Automatic annotation (TrEMBL):
One of its GO terms (biological process) is DNA repair. InterPro entries: Actin, ATPase_NBD. It holds the Pfam family Actin. It is found in: Nucleus. This is Actin-related protein 5. It comes from the Eukaryota.
Length: 662
């Protein structure tokens, strides 16, 4: 599979402030708010689509301590929804008003409401003159609803509000009857809500504490454990993109896992996702094969330069040897006077010195000839290196040891060459320690007697005063070439785009499988199929058949490809032999809740189902008017007072009521 998937890294676009038209301002138009735990959708009931759709999050970026209080802030002190352009930059400062799917942090909810009303352009003085339809979670606690009503009526002065369950709005929006088992796959929870003949059987509904948030977190951990080198690049936003575009539900999870054990199946079906990678400018236009050829060509050129230098040095040595041999012939022919005159020009002291120089030249010429012969096959040497002592072992652990040793040798030889160059540079300068050492060596050489040369160590003085140290430098140069070739051949390549790719094999089906197997992430609750079967068992066979023939899927997580087919298979396994069943998908799982609430706000009976401001003050904040898409209203019981906890010393205290005349 050659296709590489490129992450789009979507950036949010800040919402505009919409025009508050006179038809809205004076028309008493209801405002519809789908207050979801993942996204909030807001719009007017007379329009087809919501005006605002944003993530239900706020961020408080940290204050720059280097700036003074009087300086204007670079970023807003609070960012809400689509104003958070780069969410990863403020990931640890994000806040939400939800605890799971219940609103509990109303200071955050108030800021979200400010954002909603300001971006809708509502500019009325001191209040929001529009009734509101707001979604809430199934079986929302009275206390949470009380605080929400208090916020809307007291802080914003709305005339009326009506609450409804998002999944029920979606169900009635799709118009698939009045009996169904609603499966609402949300961001934090999955609800199973049985509806019989238009009536919600709340006491037999069930919830799984797992949703899109847990699936994203699980996928995030899987990929970070698989690719620890790219922990920082594997962000939650990118995981969301992968989850939305590349994940699916397996029809048979175990069978799919077995398929991935086959290497051929892996290569044919793996999804490669490219992470952001900035390629170095030197190698950005060259492929890996071209870079390899370029390195080989550079090695060839280096060998050719060294070979040319050896040939030039060989010619010089041969010419000098011929001259010294000519001097030797003079002494052999008995021409002593001419010999004595000639050796002065060559700076030779006597005949013994001449013999030593001839012997040294012969040795040097022979070595150069051997090196030239060895370098004649430069092409073959480049192609076949490293060999011999630079041939790596086959064992992986031994290979790592060999690689470290080769790197150490390369550093050692490089350091030696650099030290030699520094020494030569120091010798060229007067009044340095290196120059003084060289002068002392020359003085010892000048003071040496005629017995100089009988010991091999005597000749080291020439090496110590030589500025070039040709033989050592050449040997180190050749060794460096060999070491470079060995490292180039066997050292791991530099990071490239291939090293910044994620291979998605079983992960795209493993993460969504949490919906059916929560135990994979350590959750002890039952999965989607088991919970559905449990709900069925609480009804008669006739009602079970009615519910099984209309299993309604809604919510963001219901959009996973393959979920409908998987549920149909699970129903086939759990239902009696030859019994019928049917799974129905919402037309638009993301927006059907808002569409349903919009239709509800436009109905003729809408005002009868609203809680007015007068009813709020009379009945209390937790009061709820029931309708076909609402929760059931259960009045909170009065608090119990335990008189047994009264202190003994208060037994004779007389309690009186104090009436305050206002």
């Amino acid at each position: 599979m050659d296709d590489v998937l490129v992450l789009k890294d979507y950036k949010t676009i800040p919402d505009i402030v919409h025009e508050y038209a006179p038809s809205l301002k004076f028309g008493h138009i209801p405002l519809v708010i789908d207050n979801g735990s993942y996204q909030c959708r807001v719009g007017w009931s007379i329009y087809d689509e919501p005006y605002l759709t944003f993530k239900n999050l706020i961020a408080r970026p940290r204050k720059d301590r280097c700036k003074k209080d009087a300086d204007p802030p670079v970023t807003p002190p609070i960012q809400i929804g689509n104003d958070i352009v780069n969410i990863e930059a403020v990931r640890f400062q994000l806040k939400t008003q939800f605890d799971k799917n219940i609103v509990t942090h109303f200071e955050v909810q108030e800021q979200v409401c400010d954002y909603i009303f300001s971006h809708l352009g509502i500019d009325s003085e001191g209040h929001v003159p529009h009734p509101i339809v707001m979604t809430e979670a199934f079986v929302t606690p009275n206390y949470s609803r009380q605080l929400m009503s208090e916020l809307l009526f007291e802080a914003y002065g709305i005339p009326a509000v009506s609450y409804g369950v998002d999944s029920l709005f979606s169900f009635y929006r799709n118009g698939i009857g009045d009996t169904a088992l609603i499966v609402n796959c949300g961001y934090h929870t999955i609800h199973f809500i049985p509806v019989l003949k238009g009536k919600v059987v709340a006491e037999r509904a069930r919830r799984i504490n797992l949703g899109g948030s847990e699936i994203i977190s699980y996928m995030h951990k899987l990929l970070q454990l698989k690719y620890p080198v790219h922990v920082n690049a594997i962000t939650m936003s990118r995981i969301e993109e992968i989850l939305h575009e590349h994940c699916s539900i397996a029809l048979d999870y175990q069978e799919e896992i077995r398929k991935w054990a086959n290497p051929d199946y892996y290569e044919a079906n793996v999804k490669r996702v490219q992470l952001p990678f900035v390629q170095s400018s030197s190698s950005s236009t060259l492929t890996a094969e071209q870079q390899k050829e370029r390195k080989k060509e550079m090695a060839r050129r280096l060998l050719e330069i060294n070979a040319r230098k050896r040939e030039e040095r060989l010619l010089e040595d041969e010419e000098q040897l011929n001259q010294l041999l000519a001097l030797q012939e003079l002494i052999e022919d008995g021409e002593t006077d001419e010999f004595n005159e000639a050796i002065k020009a060559f700076d030779i002291k006597n005949y013994g010195d001449l013999q030593r120089q001839i012997a040294n030249l012969n040795v040097r010429i022979e070595k150069n000839k051997q090196r030239i012969a060895a370098a004649a096959n430069a092409e073959e040497v480049v192609e076949t290196r490293p060999a011999g002592r630079y041939q790596p072992p086959n064992d992986p652990e031994a290979f790592q040891v060999w690689l470290e040793e080769t790197r150490a040798k390369y550093r050692e030889v490089s350091a030696r060459r650099e030290a030699r160059r520094a020494r030569r540079a120091a010798m060229a300068k007067r009044r340095t320690a290196a120059a003084a050492e060289r002068m002392r060596a020359i003085s010892r050489l000048a003071a040496a007697g005629d017995d100089f040369g009988y010991r091999d160590s005597d000749w080291d003085v020439y090496k110590s005063i030589s500025r070039e140290a040709d033989s050592d430098s050449e040997a180190d140069g050749e060794r460096l070439v060999e070491l470079e070739e060995a490292l180039r051949e066997y050292e791991p390549a530099q990071p490239s785009q291939y090293h910044h790719q994620l291979h998605l094999a079983i992960e795209p089906i493993r993460a969504p499988e949490l919906m059916f197997q929560p135990s994979m992430m350590g959750n002890l609750e039952a999965g989607l199929a088991e919970t559905m079967e449990y709900v069925f068992k609480h009804f008669s066979e006739e009602d079970q058949l009615l519910l099984a023939n209309n299993v309604f899927l809604t919510g963001g997580c219901s959009q996973f490809p393959g979920l409908k087919e998987r549920l149909e298979r699970e129903l086939l396994e759990m239902r009696p032999f030859q019994s019928s069943h049917k799974v129905v998908m919402a037309k638009n799982p993301n927006l059907d809740a808002w569409y349903g609430a919009r239709d509800f706000a436009g109905s003729n009976d809408f005002e009868d189902w609203c809680i007015s401001k007068e009813e709020y003050y009379e009945m209390g904040g937790e009061y709820l008017k029931e309708h076909h898409a609402s929760n059931r209203y259960y009045k909170s019981p009065a608090p119990l007072i335990d008189n047994t906890l009264t202190p003994a010393g208060d037994a004779n205290v007389v309690k009186e009521e104090i009436v305050v005349d206002c």
